[in-house]
Design brief:
alpha/beta; 4 strands; 46% helix; SRR1L; SRR1-like
Length: 173
């Protein structure tokens, strides 16, 4: 991990699978203390991210790409899938912090939606506090974007990526 606490994830396919601690954290009942701890950790993670070399590089790359594409973000929407439970894992909090920074950097004024099948009501509360709309229903990635939409999907099953692409990829001649 970089000295600022943020790094690009490497190939770690399945590295969290079959871990007893993770399985236990997904099944235990959440408390208000978990929600409060998640809030405090998110504040800390935001400060770390916004001063990190990873964020600086990501902003530059994103700005250059959007400029090259002559992107108009006035109607841009944002959908995040597969972030995990913010109240259960620090990695999920890192992902929502990065998503929030993307939304702010791009000045996204359209819909900002997040879906995670393992959300608890406290995760939905936290999502709302971070200016995201937590969707209670899965669209299985079959959402057809009516306006330009940035999909943020850091840890999703291959089929979900496939569904998003099939639903939104238009061939041009």
């Amino acid at each position: 991990m970089d000295d600022d606490g943020w790094k690009v994830a490497g190939k770690g396919k399945g590295r969290w699978r079959n871990k007893p601690a993770l399985a236990q954290s997904l099944t235990r009942e959440l408390t208000l203390e978990d929600l409060d701890q998640a809030r405090k950790d998110i504040v800390l993670l935001e400060k770390q991210l916004l001063t990190s070399s990873l964020w600086s590089s990501a902003k530059s790359a994103l700005s250059e790409t959007l400029e090259r594409l002559q992107w108009d973000n006035t109607e841009l929407s944002f959908r995040a899938y597969g972030l995990g439970s913010f109240c259960r894992t620090r990695e999920s909090r890192r992902q929502i912090v990065f998503a929030k920074a993307l939304v702010a950097h791009l000045n996204i004024l359209g819909d900002v939606l997040v879906f995670e099948p393992h959300f608890h009501e406290y995760d939905s509360i936290l999502a709302k506090e971070l200016a995201f709309t937590a969707s209670p229903l899965s669209d299985d990635g079959l959402f057809l974007a009516a306006s330009p939409t940035l999909f943020f999907m850091p840890h999703c099953p291959r089929q979900l990526y496939n569904n998003v692409l099939q639903s939104n990829w238009k061939a041009t001649h």
